[in-house]
Design brief:
Elements (H helix, E strand, L loop, with lengths): L3 E2 L2 E2 L18 E3 L5 E3 L1 E2 L10 H10 L12 H20 L7 E5 L2 H11 L5 E5 L4 H4 L8 E5 L5 H13 L6 E6 L11 H10 L3 E5 L11 H4 L3 E5 L10 E5 L2 H5 L10 E6 L5 E5 L13 H17 L1 H20 L4 E3 L12 E6 L4 H12 L1 E2 L1 E3 L4 H8 L24 E5 L6 H17 L5 E4 L2 E4 L4
Parallel strand pairs: 5-17, 7-8, 7-9, 9-10, 10-11
Antiparallel strand pairs: 1-2, 3-4, 6-12, 11-12, 13-14, 15-16, 16-19, 18-19, 20-21
Helix pairs in contact: 1-9, 2-9, 5-6, 10-13, 11-13
Bound molecules: pyridoxal-5'-phosphate.
GO molecular function, one term: lyase activity
InterPro entries: Aminotrans_V_dom, PyrdxlP-dep_Trfase, PyrdxlP-dep_Trfase_major, PyrdxlP-dep_Trfase_small
Cofactor: pyridoxal 5'-phosphate
Length: 461
Amino acid sequence: MSVVARNVTVCPDVQVQQPLAVLGRDVEVPLVNGEKVTYAALDYAASAPALQRVWDDVAAYAPYYGSVHRGAGYLSQLSTDLFEQSRAAVADFLDLREDDQVVFTRATTDSLNLLAAALPSGTRVFAFETEHHASLLPWPGRGLEVAYLRAPRSVSEAVAALDAALSTAGEGPKLVCVTGASNVTGEIWPVAELAAVAHGRGARIVLDAAQLAPHHRVSVRELDVDWVAFSGHKLYAPFGAGVLAGRADWLDAAEPYLAGGGASRTVARQIDGSVAVEWHQGPARHEAGSPNVIGAYAIASACRALTEAGFDALQAREQQLIERLRAGLAEVPEVRVLTLFGEDHPRVGVLSFVVQGWNSSHFAAALSAEYGIGVRDGLFCAHPLVRTLLGGEEAAPSECGAPEPSLPGERSLNAIRVSFGAGTPDEHVDRFLAAVRELVAGGSAWSYRTEGGRCVPDTRR
Ligand SMILES: Cc1ncc(COP(=O)(O)O)c(C=O)c1O
């Protein structure tokens, strides 16, 4: 991949052998017993490793780095071109409508907060309580009315619940916020159906695609959503940028998300000592300050790489891993996989579970310290959902070292999540399954204690 800006090819061609290879494949990590193993990265849902292709593209551009929209020099102009080309690449990736716009943000959380700040006053917002906190929390406290819908147990229940809520919502602007794929269960939400319901009831809809976009093609046109948000670091492009894309009208009518240079077209001192500002329309209105061109370019590079690899092929590969994982976990009766819509519901490569008799933090810590496997434990910034799935309202932290309340038949207080995607070899899933079997059968080989809120091996002996 070479960089073409100002109509010249300025960066060397990068030859990429495996377009979806990721960095960190050969990283060795220490085990608590002093040995070393190759790290098995199974926490893609938190932050995915960088694609080699993204890394190479960024490295090829780095010497040409310059300011964006604020420099007369050649590299500034080149970087400005590259930034705007990156916007166009994201628009292609998301299959945006002609008048839609792409705003570069810091990540999904930032994107949804931007949208929340731009909603017309009095907008009524509807979100399922199953959302990630990034989709649950930006709305209250801004003069918006927020309705949280109870966790549905099937697709049809979700669609009916939204329809019922919107049917009594009355006139005025309304926004529905929905996730594309759950960061807890990996289950895919019926986005197109919910969008049809929303539009049928005069509401707009924003798609939180943080977990969907890395795994599935997201066509704004086909899903018919009004906005979509996602994060570069979950899309194999960990350079601090994210995206909010979609309809321009509400964004153009809103106060700039950040006030400052880049968002302002003209600033004039007034006779009374104040300043009069004319703000830009379009993406620049909400991108005040020097833009993160490397972050934007990295996202564009990942978008191209995923598109070229083809989501059909990616999904087919990921589905094999999901089946392998599910079949392996099904052989361990102590494991309970968390699901909202049923275990056979379509999902991306994200799966959470609890192990009878185990504190999940202890289990995850043992996977890391004794096997070199990186997963996540906790409530995954989706507290209401995980508590619903675990069957309780309250979750109190407990000491990880002490095998905790979940005696046979009792519920766990948090869960373990395993997640993967491009570049994950079968071997990582197999190693994970072997470790689960061994831990469940024989317990952890080490003792653990809680330190700074984390479960860690007790090496004080
Ligand atoms: C479904 C979902 N939405 C939003 C977010 C927030 O993403 P970020 O932390 O990149 O802002 C996450 C992060 O895990 C997520 O899984």
